[in-house]
Write a structure and sequence with these properties.
This protein is α/β, with parallel strands linked by helices and about 240 residues long. It folds into two domains: about 150 residues, Rossmann fold (3-Layer(aba) Sandwich); about 70 residues, Alpha-Beta Plaits (2-Layer Sandwich). It is built from seven helices and eleven strands. A hairpin with a 2-residue loop joins strand 5 and strand 6. Helix 5 runs parallel beside helix 6. The chain is globular. The model has no long low-confidence stretch (mean pLDDT about 90). Bound molecules: magnesium ion. Its cofactor is Mg(2+). Removes the phosphate from trehalose 6-phosphate to produce free trehalose. It is an enzyme of class 3 (hydrolase). Pfam families: Trehalose_PPase.
Length: about 240
């Protein structure tokens, strides 16, 4: 259930007891006009590595982005990554997703549609996205296109995101990936803490709270999370504080 989250900052992390799961865009870094234009602040990878060590390895990044992109933004972070909503991972025992879809043809259709409508297409290793941030008035047009593509590709499902519609493998969700990981080393026996800013994060926020952990909504908007941080800068300060005690 989505409710109005109070503007209450979460209590401090307890690295000895917590398993920390962090979304990337809009949570650790500010959303950029284009997905490839994200600015990664100096020192972010170092804070994540410090916290990863303090948590006994129980810290993972969980993103809808392709894992390779995520890794390229944070070359000095060598901890676990979950990409493509759980369809890809690094350093974790996740089964991943199949390739039943003709991705080259799908990507070509997205590029064609984006070029014809002054929008941005994003090719993903397991799907594709159409971004309308540059033309918010094109939301309905973009949605209609995404729904048309879903009808043609039954293995994919529609994932609305911030100013974008994404097609992802039907089985891949962040919370499903976390459910598979939670009872495995190094996460088992720890209290899950999840931070995210988008609709794709809501099931994972709820999951963390159902397991006795913390769900932290980042930024504005309704959420089922009990806690809130105002934006990526506040998130980075909160994470940094946990490395300094
Ligand atoms: Mg995000």
């Amino acid at each position: 259930m989505t409710t109005d989250t109070p503007n209450t900052a979460p209590p401090a992390l307890v690295p000895g007891e917590d398993a920390v799961f962090l979304d990337f865009d809009g949570t650790l870094v500010e959303i950029a006009p284009r997905p490839d234009a994200v600015h990664v602040p100096d020192g972010l990878a170092e804070v994540l590595m410090d916290l990863h060590a303090l948590c006994g390895g129980a810290l993972a990044l969980v993103s809808g982005r392709a894992m390779g992109e995520l890794a390229a933004f944070l070359p000095r972070f060598t901890g676990p990554l979950i990409g493509s909503h759980g369809a890809e991972s690094r350093g974790l025992d996740l089964p991943g997703a199949g390739h039943a879809v003709d991705l080259a043809a799908l990507h070509a259709r997205f590029v064609e549609f984006a070029n014809a409508n002054d929008l941005l297409a994003e090719a993903k290793p397991h799907g594709a996205a159409i971004h309308f941030r540059s033309r918010p008035e094109a939301e309905a047009l973009a949605r209609a296109f995404a729904e048309e593509m879903i009808a043609l590709h039954p293995g994919l499902t529609l994932q609305p995101a911030k100013m974008a519609f994404e097609l992802r493998p039907a089985g891949a969700t962040k919370d499903a990936a976390l459910r598979q990981l939670a009872d495995a080393v190094p996460f088992a026996g720890r209290r899950p803490v999840y931070l995210g800013d988008d609709t794709t994060d809501e099931p994972a926020l709820i999951w963390a709270q159902e397991r006795g952990g913390m769900g932290v909504k980042v930024g504005e908007g309704a959420s089922a999370a009990r806690w809130r941080l105002s934006g990526p800068q506040a998130v980075r300060a909160w994470l940094t504080a946990a490395t300094e005690t």
